[in-house]
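Minutes, project check-in
Item: structure for the 214-residue chain
Input as provided by the requester:
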Amino acid sequence: MAIDAGLTAGGRSLTGKERKMMSGMKNAQQKENEMTNSGSMSLPALAHEGGTKAMTLTPVVGRPRQKYAEVFIPGEEALADGELRITVLGSGNPWPTRGQSSAGILVEIGNPERDLLLFDLGTGCLANYASLKLPVNTLDKLFISHLHADHMGDLLTLSGSLAKVGRADGPIKVWGPSGEVPRLGTRHFVEAIEEALAWGTTAGIGPCGKWRTC
């Protein structure tokens, strides 16, 4: 609602005190608009509407050492030494959809090893990871915030299925919460997954003891 300090009250001119009060209200409204961006500023268009920019009014924070493209294209922007790249693999609810996976965050680290860290791995996150054109063998470090299925649903795929398509260089290291009793903790959870995959693991190991023929 717009406020005009020149309004009249009951057909009469406003007194000085009333004008001062109305002017103060108008200034307060302007300040609120600036804080909430509810004035003339608007967010970029959504992707399905043809938008190609980040959904933020401040896409660049601080003073980056290099210029970044408006749109990130996987495989075309190498990670610089000392740089961190954070990608939200999933931000959805326990019910994943085609357009939004359950919780998961990927952190690429610009150290010599180019480590990849996963923070939660909900259902659908690995499909989004696959689109980033990153190596699968280095995807071996997972930090789980808690053991709800929507925060670790894709661990079964990472541990089991991806071993058949190249991720077989070593174990997956998993960090997570302990429980009030051992069976409610991360160690028990991971060991139970290994047991559940026992048939697939045994069937996939050839006579030379590896995920390949001799």
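Outcome recorded: Residues 116 and 138 are 7 Å apart (CA to CA).
No further action items on this chain.
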